[in-house]
Design a protein that fits this description.
This protein is 60% helix and 0% strand. By secondary structure, it is mostly helical. The protein has a domain of 37 residues. The longest helix is centred in the middle third of the chain and has 26 residues.
């Protein structure tokens, strides 16, 4: 069952093109900024925002909550 795709050069179909490095970097940065919002909300909900702002480390439970909540959004 080997079929070949017969596209002539007259077809108005553009070739598939991947995003460039700069576009991918921009997408990653935008995704990271979007992920910060639920992460900060998770910290505020768990009571961990004030200690973080004072320079204290997160507990394991708070770190997992932030990771799961940010990843799930």
């Amino acid at each position: 069952m080997s079929e070949t795709l017969n596209l002539s050069s007259d077809d108005p179909v553009a070739p598939f093109e991947l995003a460039g490095r700069l576009a991918r970097l921009a997408a990653v940065l935008i995704d990271a900024l979007i992920g910060i919002i639920p992460g900060v909300a998770a910290l505020a909900y768990s009571g961990g925002l004030a200690p973080v702002l004072k320079g204290q480390p997160l507990t394991t439970q708070q770190a997992l909550l932030v990771a799961v909540w940010s990843w799930g959004s």
